[in-house]
Amino acid sequence: MDLGQLRNSRGELWLNVASSHYVLPDFVNLDNHVVLALLRVYPLLRPFLTENRRKEFRTFREARTRAVLRRHDCRKPLPFPSGSVDHVLCSHFLEHVYPSEAVTILADFRRVLRNGGTLHVIVPDLKTLIDAYVSRAAEAEAVDKLITASCLSFRNRPSLRYRVLEFLGYEGLKHRWMYTQPSMTQRLVEAGFRLLGKNATPSWEVHAEDGALSLHLVAEKV
Known about the structure:
222 residues, Rossmann fold, 7-stranded mixed sheet, single chain, alpha/beta
């Protein structure tokens, strides 16, 4: 791997882990979406796809024209040498894996980061969802709204397509775990990171508009 070609205009290596098609310029964007595995054969598949599926393929193809987007199962070790990365953004991904997997993933983030390298983690804030539930607990639909908002399950059995993709390892539509500020802070500290009070990282604008819905934690490798 030629890291020189992946470094941005500042000479740094920034990763956007589990980016989907929400790619960021100056970042190496990584994702395992099934579309990325099929892009090469899209011309053959196109006649058999619905317009919504075609749009999905076009979205990922367009994303690749705006930034580096590589296919990688982000539950597995990142394909970069130890100490080679300056910044990692992990936005709305850790809630989609099991806690034991999250521990392994955070350890690998620390491995690839240089000393003093930064990590920006964004996850849904469980406290916000619970506070919303408490405020309307007397309503008959309160519990249903909480479970739906948490994405921990579905009202109806998922489609066969979804279940096949999930069996093949293409997860992402359902949450496996949820976090609050204290619980995610503990995960980061146990992984060997030091929490920072201010987000001055290259990804500070990502999901900034979410307000209380998204929990932002910024840390550095020590």
